[in-house]
Amino acid sequence: MASAVSAIFILDLKGKVLISRNYRGDIPMSAVEKFLPLVLEAEEESQAPAPCFTDDGINYLYIRHNNLFLLAITRKNSNATTVMLFLHTIAEVLTEYFKELEEESIRDNFVIIYELLDEMMDFGYPQTTESKILQEYITQDAYKLEVQVRPPMAVTNAVSWRSEGIRYRKNEVFLDVVESVNLLVNANGNVLRSEILGAIKMKVFLSGMPELRLGLNDKVMFESTGRAPTKGKSIEMEDVKFHQCVRLSKFENDRTISFIPPDGEFDLMTYRLNTQVKPLIWVEALVENYTGSRVEYLIRAKAQFKRRSSANNVEIHIPVPEDADTPKFRSGIGSVQYVPEKACVIWKIKQFQGGKEFSMRAHFGLPSVKNLEDADKRPPMSIKFEIPYFTTSGIQVRYLKIQERSGYAALPWVRYITQNGDYQMRMPDSIKASKMAPI
Amino acid sequence: MIINTYNKTGENAELLADLNSEYRDRRKDAVKRVIANMTVGKDVSSLFPHVVKNMQTEDLEMKKLVYLYLMNYAKSNPDLVILAVNTFVKDTDHVNPLIRALAIRTMGCIRVDKILDHLCEPLRKCLEDDDPYVRKTAAICVAKLWDLDQERALENGFVTILQGLVSDSNPMVVANAVTALAEMQESSETKDIFVVNVAIMNKMLAALNECTEWGQIAILTSLAEYRPLDSKEAESICERVMPRLQHANGSVVLSAIKVLMILLRYINNDEFVKGLIRKMSPPLVTLLSSAPEVQYVSLRNINLILQKRPDILQNDVRVFFCKYNDPPYVKREKLEIIIKLCNDKNIEQILSELKEYASEVDVDFVRKAVRAIGRCAIKIDEASERCVNVLLDLINTKVNYVVQEAIIVIKDIFRKYPKRYEAIIPTLCQNLDSLDEPEAKGSLIWIIGEYAERIDNADELIENFLETFLEENSRVQLQLLTATVKLFLKKPSQSEEIVHRVLQTATEEIDNPDTRDRAFVYWRLLSTNPQAAKAVVLSEKPPISVETNTVSPALMDELINNISTLASVYHKPPTAFMGNKAYSADAVKKAAAAE
């Protein structure tokens, strides 16, 4: 079950190849010419084209990134998940190298992209893709002849994500616990889905090869060790995913999170939990649509978390008809803005204290003639916010132990923040629309 | 890449001069320009000897560029490749492991016979190199050689050396050795290159904890080939693979799921199986937080896994509800899974969700949502009435394509539950005029024919359709023929004239042999033996059931073996789409047998 890909291409949206790498030579590179026509053909058949398809014995797998396609082709029954993830990895690595991955940065940096493609994949199999490590031996600076670059030990070490000999004058670790809330509420105000995607993001500035151990108020850990939490509650995570530096078998055995961290920024772990808590910010909309003349909105927003917390930079996006005009607003707090190109109204509230409730009215004119053929798009309302010093799950870092041979003392800093993920509430039907319909 | 003829002789001459310049910077710049031309698809193969001249350099960047050029144009200049061999061989002896590895990696990519003669000695050295970076590169190089010349790889003992590397002290080398061996095993005729036995399995399990994410995938893929001796052994392998479900890389997770799904076949400890199934659900759900393309692949696999193990994800239907901004291909797959997970407990929730989808803008998705409502009705007897009510609501929206789709699924509901929902027929018939798609028309005509005795004005309705009989799609014509005959058999007094007219038109004016022949058959039947006609036309129809399982059991096992691969995405055996083999008689037969 060889999973190798034959070649990788980066194309613009017109299907023109910007750069490519042929890894196996078993497919003529001209096969790429059929790619975009095939995608367009699939689109025409009103079928949403899938991100991978087969044609004439050749399989095409692709992703979109900005205005680019990243495409892999193969003749074999390749591992589709690997290929998709690898394409995303290429996009990530190139973005880290050039800040922005787009047509221009590719043209300006083709030499280094060839080098990276050569190092990241061999004969169609992914190799070293850790961008920090790659940056150690594939650099944008022209090489000085005197200094010969060598492969960093990390490339083949068991610790493939950290190089030896890192030094900091001040040893520090920053831990950010970031929870994104995904919420979907239907038009009747029932919560269809509510989940938290949490991440523990680390910024590590530590010398040498430090051993870290992280303790959380994880319920399963408390149970397995037979210790009750000394204070506060424990939380139950549904699924935990770790950065490759974490020793998974150790976690499986005794729920200890132990690792040698990469240098700099990375996501140590992500977790998911379904919660039954009240949605943090609740928005209700009342729509009165007088077809052919005007539409009116009454929006009520409520912060359903503790009074001592507050949400910052709250934005409530309310979709309105595309042909609406002459907006008028009245709100108790914040600013309201009409964004015609997105067909929505944005209500911004800089600081929204827990327990408070505010409302906003919007009024729009509608053209008297409406093309009935146009199906009404019904995008949901979406809400953005950040609540610092607060996690929905109640996760807490109990300790972070740092040990290094040289025995230096290091300072860990922890911050908590909750923010919106996919936070959507569907719009209710207009209450008067049917009554006012023209006869 | 499109190769244009390179006719700007001016630039070519300039490059030529610069490539031979006495100044290093100018030569390097020239090589860069050559590569730039290559990148945009211009043919720069004529500069071959001049570029290759610059290969012998201590400048790593320059060397890489020349190597890159060589890989691209060696095939068009096979005779000149020999010029490069010397430098290659020298480079494989370089003090810097980066250059040793680069040389052996590039040599393997030059698919020209002349190179192979010179590849074997350096390759042997590199496989035994002190530096793991060189060894891991050489391991893949053996697969490259194998791809071109299996004989040579065997004769030189590379296969044996590679097998030895599975026990290497470095996990990355182990992973690449496993990768190379697995590929060679697949294309070998004897199939004895890489047989995963207990010893090899243990080595791989040991390396699993240490290697990179991609290495773990390679190892898990090969682990999936191992067949345990008994339930106990299978369980212990599961225990060691299970921690992989916590890996951040979704492909590691799916590869681990594959191994677990295969091992499940050998485990007869019910408790263990239950626990395992429970542990697999959360990671599968988490895959839905990945990039949309990865979600798509995951959803196709979840679809398969659900067909094999319907007890998985039972309480998770909400996570498959579509987000407004999901790409269409993700929505489509989520819908399939929602139907699979629908049961009498969650149907209420699912129906309100499907109804929501039916009011979206994407016509294709709306149709699928409406169809899904019908499939739920057929799947869950107790819920059928609620489904029918939702469909009636949708018909009342009068949105053309929603109405048509609803009528199509209602026909299926009628077939599944005959005589249960006749009361809604009048509502359906009110929408007669808005139907313009053959399938919807055919469905309504079928309903009218089937229930002709209950519909007072059935003859008028049929008559109405018959006005355009000749212009209709053959599918509609066939339905009309049958419905008219049913009407006649049920209400002979009302419709003798109609049936006569239809049969005459069909036999005399229609060229489509299907329609014409069916008309002849009906005519003959009706005229010779009306009783027999009744028996044939009005016979009991076999009940239909919803086919949520789209994959046959035989194919299923093969697809489970291929979780995470393209086969699992297409839901087709690999032979059906791989290379030209797909069209060989053998493959077609095998595929047919599997269907």
Q: How would you name the oligomeric state of the polypeptide chains in this document?
A: heterodimer
Envelope shape of chain B: elongated
- The shape of chain A is globular
- What is the number of domains of chain A? 3
At the fold tier of CATH, the topology name of the largest domain in chain A is Immunoglobulin-like
- Could you estimate the helical fraction of the residues of chain A in percent? 10-25%
- What is the largest interface, and how many residues per chain? A-B, 101 and 112 residues
Number of strands of chain A: 23
Write down the CATH class of the largest domain in chain A.
Mainly Beta
Radius of gyration of chain A (Å):
27 Å
**Helix-and-strand structural type of chain B:** mainly alpha
Largest sheet of chain A: 9 strands, mixed
Q: Quick recap of the structure?
A:
By secondary structure, chain A is α+β, with helices and mostly antiparallel strands. Chain A has helices at residues 35-44, 80-98, 103-108, 110-120, 131-137, 219-225, 248-254, 433-436, and strands spanning 7-12, 17-22, 52-55, 58-65, 68-74, 121-122, 125-126, 172-185, 191-205, 211-216, 239-242, 257-259, 264-274, 281-290, 294-303, 310-319, 325-331, 335-339, 344-353, 357-365, 381-388, 397-403, 411-425.
